[in-house]
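Narrative of activities, Objective 1.

The group set out to show that a structural description can be obtained from nothing but a protein's sequence at a throughput compatible with the screening campaign. Below is one input-output pair from the validation batch, recorded exactly as produced.
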Amino acid sequence: MGSFSMEEFVGNGSLKKILPKLLEEGWDDVPSLKIMSPEDKNVINMTQQQKDALEIRTYLHDRALMQYGDKLEASRKCLPDLINLSMSDLSSQFGMKRGHIVRFIDRTSACVSDPLPPSYTLQARKPSMIPSRNNSIYEGESVTVNSRKMQSMRRSLGRSSAAFDVSHEKFMATFKIKDGHVFKGIVAAMPAEPRACGCIQPPPIVEDVAPYPAIENISIQKLTPEYKIGMERLVKTKAPPMKASELWRDKPAVLLCIRRPGAEAHKIYAQKPIFDALGVQLFTVLHEHIDTEVKDFWPRYWGGIVIYDAGMEFFKALGGGKLLKDKFISGFLFNPRAIANYKRAKATGAEQNFKGEGETKGGLFIIGRGRSGIAYQFIERNFGDWAPLAEVIEICSRLQNQQQNMEPIRSSQEYEMDISCNSSISRVPVV
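Output recorded for this entry:
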């Protein structure tokens, strides 16, 4: 899997010479560097060789083939010429393995955008929170990027409109959002199905969003900062504990609660420029602190802040107050969906991680700014499930729109109280 370390992305080729200039101009993380527009490249006086190198490395990063970056760049060929080489030439000239060759010449595939199988439709859940009476996010709207959202992202990016157009185009192509995609509700999970010929039933999951008081006072610890080039790979001094609510005091936040550090986080962090444009922070939450695992995880799969939840309180909140657990035999060997998830993850080229406690399931929270509440919650029903990126980004975009309109998100408790006081407000049925 392509690393989010700038040093590893740039490698030892022509881009290394202009690395100080890139940092000076604000291109200081891999996801942003990958969306540079032709205009941005001209501003820092990139040579054609450097432009070709960036195109090659971006392509390789998407396909988890960064180990070939220096060799391919040294050939002085542009990306289209390299892709059109025969399999024998790729093997003999660059030492590329057969499986990697197939991934390299397939222009439609990208490991960070591995789509869910068609059968993996999200199970509908009961919506437990509505932002306002006049601007509900549960009206069955299609997941599209409207003109208002595009204008907001362009302003937030603070770079050329061409850079925005490229990122927006990649976003649409990556997630294949269609007009028929309908938002399902703020508590989501993949479908359940009988295991081992129906004799083993999947464990139940909660139907309602976690109450905000269950998460705001969680004691957490920052294990890593936001990655910047040249910094130490880990903070040498241990950060003091802090309240979780400090994370989203000023900006909304996506909290990816992961069972084990690995490639799932890579898919989220690869879209960092879009989350930055929406004003949303990204955090990964771990329930174990194993130094070697954190070092392997950051910044290879995740270049953002890593949080340690020693009491596993976020994971308990996902389970309605108790940890969601499954045994290896019943939850994996007898579960066809978990096996499919494993095969899909393995196909991306990411190394599989089996260290530490792996029975506690995770998920994802999207939390509004301040005390506005939880806007979205995804639960890992089967080992290896993840929240659909298209839906995560859509929720974040609606949070941004509400903030611009000065319409605060209300908590589920406030919404329930409003329903009891005003019979004219009703929930939209979930389909």
